[in-house]
Amino acid sequence: MNQFRRQLVSDRFFRRTMSFLAPRKKFWKRVEVAQFVDENSSGYLVQLDNKSIKTPLLNKLHAPNEQIAQIMAQEWYNQDEQINPHSMPVTTICNTTIDNPTGISKEELIDALLEFFHTDTIVCLADDPEKLVEYQEQLWSPIHRWFEDKFKVEVYSSANLFTLSQSDEALETMRAHLHTYNIWQLYGLQTSIDAIKSFILPLAVIYGRITVEEAVRLSRLEINFQTLRWGNVEYAHDIEEQNQKAILSAGLLVHKLAEGLEET
Predict the structure, then answer these.
(1) Nearest 5°: phi and psi at 227?
(2) Which of 98, 130, 226, 254 has its CA 20 to 30 A from that of 16?
(3) Residue 259 in 3-state DSSP?
(4) Domains with residue ranges and CATH for the chain
């Protein structure tokens, strides 16, 4: 896809997504999952009163397997009188995977994920105050060491963000690892990475080193430290943290349930 065409598609996706996000009233009574097969694709549709849902680019909204479709259907079933698209993270992941609004290849998507490795939340260190530096060493360093041992790479961390980057060897090792994931898994992982601005922590959850709650807490170490010092904005930080947990969980769930799917 050339750059001009890519921009047109991306703009169209953005406009239709903004329309989807606009306040709307719930208009359906039944939510069902239906299997489909056609000449271009196959999977499981989510239907509202027997009518299929469209993505922002007017493709069939579907999931690659019944498990993901059932979770997506539950998101639609759980809507109140006013539709809240922000409460449907699995639907959002499926929309993006199907539409691929920027027209990127699998290799380009992997490149985008690896960019987070350079500036991962837990490799960007503070140089003061001393207590925060101690917390980062105490809580982040064990995750660095686990990651290095798991993937046989070296993780660089620094308080100097202008010079901070990971080695070419580490990037190529992680690139090869990401290539073992199918496109649905990669978009699930992208959602999780973006939720907490960390490449390392979602992988630590995937491989059982930490929980979702721990990943969010580690990603918010500096925010929580500053909150303890200066006080909390009532409800705001709690809501933000819960949203991060929900989005991180949704991405990792899609990643897990999409395991073993064949590339199309």
Answers:
(1) -65, -40
(2) 254
(3) coil
(4) 3-85 (3.30.2180.10), 106-257 (1.10.3580.10)
pTM of the model: 0.88
pLDDT interval class at 10 (50, 70, 90): low
Helices 236-257/212-219 angle, 10° precision: 130
Beta-bridge mates of residue 109? none
DSSP state of 199: S
Structure confidence by residue, pLDDT tens digits, 244-260: 999 999 999 999 999 99
CB 59 within 8 A of CB 99: yes
Q: Specify which residues 41 forms β-bridges with.
A: none
Compute the distance between CA of residue 215 and CA of residue 132 in angstroms, rounded to an integer. 18
Say how many residues make up the chain.
264
Residue whose token pair is 């406009």: 15
Residue 172's φ and ψ, nearest 5 degrees, are: -70, -35
Asked if 118 and 164 touch (Cβ cutoff 8 Å), the reply is yes
The first and second tokens of residue 134, run together, are 């101690």
